[in-house]
Design goal:
With 418 residues, this protein is α+β, with helices and mostly antiparallel strands. Helices cover 29% and strands 23% of the residues. The chain has a 7-stranded antiparallel beta sheet with strand order 10-16-15-14-13-12-11. A 3-stranded antiparallel beta sheet has the order 1-9-8, with no helix packed on it. A 3-stranded antiparallel beta sheet has the order 2-3-4, with no helix packed on it.
């Protein structure tokens, strides 16, 4: 029995769900709970996207090796002896054993723990013990992934024929480049394992309807009118004349500094789900910290503080939230039907020193407590969605971001089903 007939949404049900915001509802519960549906999504949706895998500074030196579970697929990231970053499927070509289990530094080869096949860091076989004389080593190299490294960020596309990376990155390029992430280092990395479907996790991130009742720390950093209209990105809530006036004035001042301004949203359906905007923080705040004061060395092309906040979404699974002197990178990794890994990385200038240039607790405070709260929200949401009595309710005008994400998802799903 086919997944199309028994699990997935048919065309008519997709059209019914994909209504304008005043008529829209959430997705039905089987899209959040069915393991067959998750497998279908991974094979037909996830693999087609350029997504941010991690930051290249997790492997700073030649010979560094970093295994990662990406959407239920074991991968390994390596930096070769000639300083190239490569990503392979973390599967031995002999009998399929997982090749690398732990992070390693300054290695020259990778050896399978099962039968000791050894691989060079470019994925080719170095040696395969006791094989026949006619064994063709070139035929059994590791399977290589399509990747691009941009501003220190490793992007991956698991399809056989990936879309143009330059086309994909084009609208967000200037926002990312201005922050100089290629000259950054990891100040802190944290994982928030979340017992919830990946779409529930992203649903929560794409709306700020819940921010005021659930996130006092976030509301202490951001203006209430910003939260109303921009809390989950540009045009994710009702327009605020007060915030628009504040934004216009900040844009004029920031442009005079020579800093970038503006925003980008997808206006027509395409292969991507990208966004970017620069907005001011709450009056008197310079950074997303408890004190709101400058917190580290300025990054990228910033010569002075403009009190700005840059939000970039390169894919549904990646968000870059950047102040003038540090950046917080979100990566949402679907692992299984009911489990999502949420990874946060805080980046600072490569020359910044903890305790001298930045206070780590002050820097990580807001998004750490907010993500812990979101983890609990999502897990409670998943428990409710598992109920047979759950029927998706109407969306608020503050859930436009969720409606846009749902529309993008359903259109791609419809294409995949067709």
């Amino acid at each position: 029995m086919s997944i199309t007939a028994n699990v997935a949404l048919n065309t008519s049900s997709i059209e019914k769900i994909n209504n304008p915001i005043h008529q829209a509802t959430g997705l039905p519960n089987r899209t959040y709970t069915c393991s067959e549906f998750f497998t279908f999504e991974r094979e037909r949706l996830f693999s087609e996207q350029w997504t941010g895998l991690t930051q290249a500074c997790v492997i700073p030196n030649p010979g560094d090796i970093w295994p990662i579970n990406w959407m239920g697929i074991p991968l390994v990231i390596v930096r070769t002896q000639n300083n190239q970053v490569k990503v392979f499927h973390n599967v031995c070509s002999h009998r399929g054993n997982k090749l690398v289990w732990n992070t390693c530094n300054r290695q020259k080869t990778m050896t399978c723990p099962y039968h000791a096949w050894r691989y060079n860091l470019d994925g080719s076989i170095n040696s395969a013990r006791l094989m026949d004389d006619n064994f063709n080593k070139k035929k059994w190299s590791l399977h290589k992934c399509n990747i691009r490294v941009f501003e220190g960020l490793i992007f991956i596309n698991l399809s056989e024929k990936p879309n143009s990376f330059d086309e994909f990155i084009s609208p967000t390029r200037k926002f990312i480049e201005f922050h100089g992430l290629g000259d950054a280092k990891i100040a802190h990395r944290a994982l928030y394992p979340t017992e919830g479907n990946w779409k529930l996790t992203l649903d929560n991130f794409h709306e700020c309807y819940h921010c005021q009742p659930s996130h006092p720390e976030y509301c202490a950093v951001h203006d209430k009118d910003y939260i109303l209209s921009y809390g989950a990105g540009s045009n994710t809530g009702p327009s605020s004349q007060k915030f628009n006036k504040t934004l216009d004035e900040w844009n004029r001042q920031t442009k005079n500094m020579g800093h970038i301004i503006g925003e980008y949203t997808e206006t027509e359906f395409n292969d991507y789900s990208r966004s970017a905007e620069r907005t001011p923080l709450k009056e008197g705040k310079y950074t997303e910290t408890r004190s709101g004061k400058p917190s580290s060395k300025l990054m990228g092309k910033f010569k002075e503080y403009d009190r700005g906040y840059t939000s970039v979404g390169t894919s549904p699974f990646n968000s870059l939230l950047m102040c003038n002197d540090f950046a917080t990178l979100f990566t949402f990794i679907p692992v299984s039907t009911l489990h999502t890994e949420v990874e946060l990385m805080w980046l600072v200038h490569k020359d910044a020193e903890e305790g001298k240039d930045y206070n780590l607790q002050e820097m990580t405070w807001m998004w750490d407590v907010t993500t812990i709260a979101d983890k609990q929200i999502i897990e409670n949401n998943q428990k409710g969605v598992l109920s047979s009595k759950y029927v998706p309710g109407p969306l608020s005008k503050m859930e436009k971001g969720l409606e846009k994400f749902k529309s993008w998802y359903l259109k791609h799903l419809n294409i995949a089903l067709s």
